[in-house]
């Protein structure tokens, strides 16, 4: 079932998400619904806060960008309670977008190399060093679990330049091709 994507301005996107406990009821259905929502919205990742749940859960399927970023080939993952460790200070600036901030894209600097520790949907532990665009996707989605959006990483001047666009999203003055939930209702 496709879930509505919560958009910029909704309070759930600014909360620090709670850990997911083993045995969480409805886990398989939630993961399946999150993947379906992500695919229908043409995303490569989706965090639980983006569907209104303040839980530390992320789904990623980066294979759609594998032609440009080989490290993303076959990378379909469920991240439960993920933890990121930065491995070096090298940062690359690339454009990012977000299903919760539709119609915008901004240049964001992110670390190129991370170590990720997480549980899968069966609560089995994993650890992996990731690099490149895959590391960027993971960092972007894990930011959602901390109540952060990619626009929080841009300069104050750039944020001022897109302020009206962000306000339009927050005030439901945009159209989106996938189911969404606005912070405010249109009048």
Characterization of the model:
The chain is α+β, with helices and mostly antiparallel strands and 187 residues long. Helices cover 22% and strands 30% of the residues. It has a single domain, classed as Alpha-Beta Complex (Peptide Deformylase), CATH 3.90.45. The strands form three sheets. Strands 2-3-4-7-8 form a five-stranded antiparallel beta sheet. Strand 5 (91-98) and strand 6 (101-111) form a beta hairpin.
Q: What topology emerges from the helices and strands here?
A:
Elements: E1 5-6, H1 27-40, E2 45-47, E3 57-61, E4 76-86, E5 91-98, E6 101-111, E7 113-119, E8 125-131, H2 132-145, H3 156-161, H4 163-170, E9 180-181
Parallel strand pairs: 1-9
Antiparallel strand pairs: 2-3, 3-4, 4-7, 5-6, 7-8
Radius of gyration (Å): 16 Å
> At the fourth CATH level, what is the homologous superfamily?
Peptide deformylase
CA distance, first residue to last residue: 28 Å
Stretches where pLDDT is under 50 for at least 5 consecutive residues are: none
Quickly count the domains: 1
Strand content: 25-35%
Average residue pLDDT = 96
Quick gist of this model?
The model has no long low-confidence stretch (mean pLDDT 96). The two termini are 28 Å apart. The protein contains four helices and nine strands.
For the structure shown, list the relevant keywords.
two-stranded parallel ribbon; alpha+beta; five-stranded antiparallel beta sheet; 187 residues; 30% strand
């Amino acid at each position: 079932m496709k879930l509505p994507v919560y958009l910029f301005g909704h309070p759930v996107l600014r909360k620090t998400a709670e850990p997911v406990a083993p045995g969480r009821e409805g886990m398989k259905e939630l993961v399946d619904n999150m993947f379906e929502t992500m695919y229908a919205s043409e995303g490569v990742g989706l965090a639980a806060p983006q569907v209104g749940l303040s839980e530390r859960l992320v789904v990623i399927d980066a294979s759609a960008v594998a032609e440009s970023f080989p490290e993303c080939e076959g990378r379909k993952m469920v991240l439960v309670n993920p933890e990121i460790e930065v491995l070096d200070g090298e940062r690359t600036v690339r454009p990012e977008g977000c299903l919760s901030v539709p119609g915008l894209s901004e240049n964001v600097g992110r670390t190129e190399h991370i170590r990720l520790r997480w549980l899968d949907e069966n609560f089995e532990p994993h650890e992996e060093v990731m690099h490149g665009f895959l590391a960027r996707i993971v960092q972007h989605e894990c930011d959602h679990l901390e109540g952060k959006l990619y626009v929080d990483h841009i300069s104050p001047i750039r944020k001022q330049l897109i302020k009206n666009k962000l306000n339009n999203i927050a005030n439901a003055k945009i159209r989106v091709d996938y189911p969404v939930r606005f912070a405010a209702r249109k009048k």
